[in-house]
Amino acid sequence: MTTFHTNQPRKFRRAILKLSGEALREVGSKDNISPEIVDRVASEIHKAYTQGDLQLGIVVGGGNFWRGAAASARGMDRATADYVGMLATVMNALALQSALEDDGVPCVVMSAIEMKNVAETFIRRRAEKYLDDGKVVIFAAGTGSPFFSTDTTAALRASEMGAEVILKATMVDGVYDSDPKKNPNAVRYETVSFQECISAQLKVMDTTAFSLCMDNKIPIIVFDLETPGNITNSLLGADIGTIVQ
User: Fold this and answer.
1) Where are the alpha helices (DSSP H) in 29-77?
2) Are strands 136-140 and 120-121 parallel, antiparallel or unpaired?
3) pTM
4) What is the domain-level CATH number for residue 97?
5) Considering its fold, how many domains does the chain have in total?
6) CB atoms near residue 238 (< 10 Å)
7) How far is it, in rounded angstroms, from Cα 95 to Cα 240?
8) Counting CB atoms within 10 angstroms of each CB, which of 89, 109, 220, 226 has the fewest?
9) Would 4 be classed as within a structural domain?
10) Range of the domain at 219
11) Is residue 8 a part of any domain in this protein?
C-alpha cells in the first residue's frame, strides 16, 4: 500500500482524479455546465500534464444535470433514474475532453455504456494502453450499472488501472468530523482511516467506494476544487487536503 504522510513529498505514477458534476456549474447560474469553469479545470490539468510524467484517469459525476437518487425519491424507478445519471456524466466528460484538447492535452472518453458515435466503449486493457501512451482517459457513464455512484466508479477504475491514489476534488478543503457548513466548530482531519470514515459515516465518499479503496489499498486525497491551482498542485503531489488511508 502507498502510505502518504503530510511531511513527505508525493509523486504519483498513475492517479485517478474524481470531479463532481456540481463543480462544473457556476453557483446561481441556470447553465448546467460553465465553460469558464471547465476551461479552468482543463488548464490546471494541462499545467500538471506538462510538468511531469503522471498517467491520469478522470472520473466525472453528473450531478449538475441529474441525481438518480433524488429522482428515485420523487417516484422514478431507481434503475432508470441511475441510467439517466450515467448519460449526464457523458455530457460532462465530452465537455472536459473538448477543453483539454483545446489546451493540447491528448485524451479519450471511454464509456461504460456503448455509444460508438460519441465515445469509445470501456475496455480495461485498452484504457491501460492509452494511459501508458500518455493520454488522459476520461471514464464516463459510471460503472455501467445502476445503484453505484461515481465515487464507486472512481474506486473501481483506480483498482482496475492500478492507480496509486484517488484525488477527490470537492467543495470543501478536506474531511471534517462534521459538516463544516452547519458546524463552525467542525475539525478537519489531516489524515483519517477508511474504517473511521465508514464508522463515523463521514459523507465525503459513499461506503462502497471507501470499502473498495480499503480492500485494494488505494489512498484518497480529498481537497478543495475552488481554490485556484489546487488541481495542479494535487496532481503534482503537493501537501493539501486530507489523506484517507
Assistant:
1) 35-51, 68-73
2) unpaired
3) 0.92
4) 3.40.1160.10
5) 1
6) 15
7) 27
8) 226
9) no
10) 14-244
11) no
Task: Output the nine-digit C-alpha cell for 96.
Answer: 472536459
**In what order do the strands lie in the sheet containing 14-19?**
120-121, 107-111, 136-140, 55-60, 14-19, 165-170, 220-224, 242-244, 191-192
Task: Specify if 94 maps to a domain.
Answer: yes
Distance from C-alpha of 60 to C-alpha of 91, rounded to nearest angstrom? 10
How confident is residue 45, by pLDDT bands cut at 50, 70 and 90?
A: very high
Q: Which residue bears the cell 498517467? A: 55
Per-residue cell: 208: 462502497
In a domain? residue 101: yes
User: Rounded to an integer, what distance in angstroms lies between the CA atom of residue 218 and that of residue 240?
Assistant: 17
User: Grid coordinates representing 139?
Assistant: 471514464
Q: How many CA atoms lie within 13 A of 132 on its CB side?
A: 8
Report pLDDT digits (tens) over 89-137.
Answer: 999 999 999 999 999 999 999 999 999 999 999 999 999 999 999 999 9
Evaluate whether 232 touches 105 at the Cβ level (below 8 Å).
Answer: no
- Residues in CB range of 211: below 8 A, 6 or more apart: 194, 198
The H-assigned helical ranges of the chain are 35-51, 68-73, 78-102, 124-132, 150-161, 194-199, 207-215, 230-235
